[in-house]
Model the fold of this input.
Amino acid sequence: MMTDNPTSTPLCRLDELNDPGSKGILYQGLSLFAVRQGQQVFVYQNRCPHRGIPLEWTPDNFLDSSGRLIQCATHGALFLPESGECVSGPCSGEYLRQLACTVRDGQVWLE
Ligand code: FES
Done:
């Protein structure tokens, strides 16, 4: 039987994320962000593989205008939400660092 670590805390509530949408999260000293696409949520380290700097345009704004791709504000690299692969821009073929997460009881948790 799985038991929860009583000290673990969720990253955020699912309903804090628009669909599609994104949110910056500071978690145990790590700068992360979550991206929602339908009922799926993906969590990444907030660090562009191009220059190693945060990606967002403005707080919680990690997506392009279509809401379907993650976009780095600095040089416009585009990343697939489900894998973090850069599909356009100066770091094409590189990946954001993804952290496994799960949605349970309306909350997003790291695995
Ligand atoms: S720092 Fe992200 S594309 Fe250059």
